[in-house]
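Batch job 17 of 40 flagged for manual review because the log was empty.
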Amino acid sequence: MLLLVLTALTPLFIYLILRVAWDLIVYGNVVAVFGAGLNFVLFLEFLIFVYLGYFVVKVLRK
């Protein structure tokens, strides 16, 4: 189960790490406003969790 959760959260972790690195390189500090990119990643996370949740429920019912 931990592996499934980490797999699902990987896009969010990658986005946050790259965003912090970009802000430090371009602006010299971390900007608090994330914008549309974070909204897209959160939507992607939601879809991944729905997909994984469907199959977890399907397996547990058998």
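Reviewer: the log was empty due to a logging misconfiguration, but the result itself is present. The two ends are 17 Å apart (CA to CA). Unflagging and moving on to job 18.
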